[in-house]
Write a structure and sequence with these properties.
The chain has 253 residues and is α/β, with parallel strands linked by helices. The chain has helices at 31-41, 55-69, 85-93, 111-118, 179-189, 196-205, 225-238; strands at 2-7, 25-26, 29-30, 46-51, 72-77, 100-104, 107-109, 127-132, 147-150, 156-160, 168-176, 209-213, 219-221. Helix 2 (55-69) links the parallel strand 4 and strand 5 (72-77).
């Protein structure tokens, strides 16, 4: 099972810290390493790490993380990391043939959440997004959240940070087919900035953006000092199984 981890951004709201955001530690382990550890438990064996801001420091840590987790890590450096995150998805996806698990390096995700999501790993088209219907939870920052409005069948009707009507929040974890990167490319060609949400909305308009409801599973987007402090409190519950032996996941031929 392949994965892409987005770790290229500036992390402006944690910029006062001395380390780049993917290397900020929670419970004594960097956010990036927690991402790899948790994905290893659900069967990921190779991950492309898209770097940009302070790439040298992040890439220098990859061999150690790979050795500790047993996951092969491949850096993919963005020359212009200031562009929207969809450009990072395009770059990372270009290193992978077929489907992949896509996560953000600044999110702590429980193994239970990822296990629910990877049940859709072998999907044939489009994308599946982990969503949480507990939209007012303490670990959700309304000022930064990406909101989702679902259709009656659970597929995505609209997605974005500025939605007025919504019934779920984006957890920052996806099962992507090659359609996702292509949708971002098409959105850019039509004048969009190239965010991940641009590509997601493009697929949603074609009814190719599904959801996996992970309500009740623990996760947090560690995007500012307040959320970092909360993550330190939540970490034992979120990553308690992070040191477990990886479980097998059979991918259909």
């Amino acid at each position: 099972m392949n994965a892409v981890i987005l770790a290229a951004g500036f992390g402006s709201r944690l910029s006062a810290m001395r380390t780049p955001k993917p290397l900020v530690e929670v419970a004594g382990v960097s956010l990036l390493e927690w991402s790899v550890r948790q994905m290893a438990v659900v069967g990921v064996t190779r991950a492309v790490i898209v770097t940009g801001h302070r790439a040298d420091e992040i890439e220098a840590r990859l061999p150690g993380i790979a050795q500790a987790t047993g996951v092969a890590l491949e850096p993919c450096r963005m020359a212009d990391w200031s562009r929207p995150n969809g450009h990072s998805v395009i770059a990372g996806a270009a290193r992978i043939s077929g489907n992949y698990l896509l996560v953000m390096a600044d999110h702590l995700l429980s193994v239970g959440l990822l296990q629910r999501l990877v049940t859709d790993f072998d999907r044939g088209a489009g994308v599946a997004l982990a969503i949480d219907r507990g939209v007012d939870g303490p670990a959700i920052d309304p000022a930064d959240a990406t909101w989702v409005r679902c259709r009656a069948d659970g597929s995505i009707a609209q997605i974005g940070k500025q939605l007025i009507r919504y019934d779920a929040v984006d957890c920052g974890a996806f099962i992507a087919t090659p359609d996702l990167a292509q949708a971002i490319v098409e959105a850019i060609a039509e004048g969009a900035s190239g965010s991940l949400s641009d590509g997601m909305q493009c697929l949603a308009d074609r009814e190719l953006a599904d959801t996996v409801d992970v309500t009740g599973e623990l996760w947090i987007d560690v995007d500012d000092p307040a959320m970092l402090a909360l993550a330190q409190v939540m970490a034992p519950a979120i990553v308690g199984r992070g040191a477990a032996q990886p479980i097998s996941h059979q991918v259909a031929a």
